[in-house]
Design a protein that fits this description.
- This protein has about 500 residues and is α/β, with parallel strands linked by helices.
- It folds into two domains: about 290 residues, FAD/NAD(P)-binding domain (3-Layer(bba) Sandwich), CATH 3.50.50.60; about 140 residues, FAD/NAD(P)-binding domain.
- About 30% of the residues lie in helices and about 25% in strands.
- It is built from 13 helices and 27 strands.
- Strands 1, 2, 3, 4, 5, 6, 19, 20 and 23 form a nine-stranded mixed beta sheet that branches. A five-stranded parallel beta sheet has the order 8-17-9-10-13.
- Helix 7 packs antiparallel against helix 8.
- The protein is globular, with a radius of gyration of 23 Å.
Length: about 500
């Protein structure tokens, strides 16, 4: 790291983007194309581009959204896999940064710990810890007129890891997927994966390729559906149309199909549930009890897990893997004893128990000297926080691809900046109406959402404070709605 990287510039940046993952690189691309006069930098705490797709290194890590919607609208996805592997997604993000001349704007090893807004200066002042090759990190300050937070929604330094009785007695290895050891050898070994979410259903087929046996141990089931590894319609479109047109059509096809099925799931949950269970039963065959895939909640009360070409079902059907639904009594020297009294033998236990959610990348926030708690704020169009000026928060969809909402947010940021330039404004802040009633920001019953209820902002019961899980509706509202809507106040 050279000295130029860690000097504090004498004049504020127009925009500082926090995070160099899928959202941060997309935000930078929008700025370079729509606001080329703006001076910006990306602050990335890690030493690499990619965010989630650089952090997670566990076997089989892959997208749980199709890549025609998870990829950017301006950069067609050219691989044949619609459900892509993590390393391919990371390379795609890196290519986007290189092609857009974005990489040179990234300041690696820059962790933002605090951000303070001054209305008098119309500026954010950031406290940043800069990693050094040797010794303690150096603290610097940077300033920006606007902050674009692309930090995701979970902690990179800590996963959710409940403690289990008698863990110390287990003589094998206990691994959390978020911190997978690169040298872990699981070939020929008995592996138990604790969990039933997206990480667990990804890990089990990957481990089953070489492990002696893999057991997915779940306290309660999740909905799991098989999706094609390749999108045949997309492949045909690419043969007949230019790549950008084929990508756009496939993207909209997947958006509309996904929205259609989501609406059915919410309007007719019992019918939709029975259809999912029937499809799972057909994949599993008679040797696996469907109760292991029959949740107590309705579809999309929690995220539905997708398995490409039914790989999880195939391994369960063949006997290379098995699923057990029970609670854990305690660990033993050779495995796990269940509440039923059964004991599962294991050499390795993987705790795929979830993420630890956080807000704003764990940075502290003050506005004119007053501490701000995100959990006490209300989300404006799912992108800004009430009474906090010049701050954009990127948060994707829970029922669809993250990138769809991230791109809308990036484009709105550019619209807002251009509008403020035309009018000569220095500050934009959504002011909350006390008549607006609060509701949870994420309408999910998942454990990681419930645990973070006090950390996340709220949504409201009316426009523009409602958070829609609908790309088409958001596109109309965010991309074409008025900037000066009476709620957004300017100075």
């Amino acid at each position: 790291m050279n000295s130029q990287q860690i000097q504090s510039p004498s004049t504020p940046y127009d925009v500082l983007i926090i995070g160099a993952g899928l959202s941060g690189i997309g935000a930078a691309r929008a700025l370079t194309s729509q606001c080329p006069d703006k001076r910006y930098a990306i602050l990335e705490a890690r030493q690499a581009i990619g965010g989630t797709w650089d952090l997670f290194r566990y076997p089989g890590v892959r997208s749980d959204s199709d890549m025609y919607t998870l990829s950017y609208s301006f950069k067609p996805w050219r691989h044949r896999k619609a459900i892509a592997d993590g390393p391919d997604i990371k390379r795609y993000i890196e290519e986007t940064a290189e092609e857009g001349d974005i990489t040179r704007h990234i300041r690696f090893g820059h962790k933002v710990t605090a951000a303070a807004w001054s209305s008098e200066e119309a500026c954010w002042t950031l406290t940043v810890l800069v990693s050094q090759a040797e010794g303690q990190p150096q603290e610097i300050t940077l300033q920006a007129r606007l902050l674009s937070l692309c930090v995701g929604y979970y902690s990179y330094v800590e996963g959710y890891r409940p403690s289990f009785a008698n863990e110390a007695a287990f003589e094998g290895q206990i691994i959390h997927p978020q911190f997978w050891p690169t040298d872990l050898d699981y070939a020929g070994k008995r592996v138990v994966v604790i969990g039933s979410g997206a990480t667990a259903v990804t890990l089990v087929p990957a481990l089953a390729k070489t492990a002696a046996h893999v057991t997915m141990l779940q306290r309660s089931p999740s909905y799991v559906v098989s999706r094609p590894l390749q999108d045949n319609i997309a492949q045909r479109l690419q043969k007949w149309l230019p790549m950008p047109a084929a990508h756009a059509l496939t993207r909209w096809k997947n958006v509309l199909v996904g929205s259609f099925f989501y609406r059915i799931a919410r309007k007719k949950p019992e019918m939709f549930k029975q259809r999912i269970l029937q499809m799972a039963s057909d994949e599993l065959g008679p040797s696996v009890d469907i109760r292991h895939f029959t949740p107590s909640y309705n579809p999309w009360d929690q995220r539905v897990c997708a398995v490409p070409d039914g790989d999880l079902f195939r391994d369960l059907r063949s006997g290379r893997a098995s699923v057990v639904t029970d609670s854990i009594d305690q660990f033993t020297p050779t495995g796990i004893r269940l509440a039923s009294g059964e004991e599962i033998q294991a050499d390795i236990i993987v705790t795929a128990t979830g993420l630890k959610m956080n807000a704003l990348g764990d940075m502290t926030l003050t506005v004119d000297g007053q501490s701000v708690q995100p959990g006490q704020s209300m989300a404006y169009k799912g992108m800004m926080l009430s009474d906090i000026p010049n701050l954009i928060l990127t948060f994707g969809y829970t029922n669809s691809s993250w990138t769809l909402k991230a791109e809308l947010t990036a484009n709105y940021t550019c619209r807002l900046l251009r509008y403020m330039d035309r009018k000569g404004y220095r500050m934009a802040v959504p002011r909350r109406d006390p008549q607006v009633q609060e509701a949870p920001f994420i309408d999910f019953t998942s454990g990681y959402v419930r645990r973070a209820a006090g950390l996340l902002p709220k949504q409201g019961d009316r426009k523009p404070w409602q958070v829609y899980q609908n790309y088409t509706q958001d596109k109309l509202t965010i991309q074409y709605g008025r900037i000066d809507d009476g709620v957004m106040q300017f100075q």
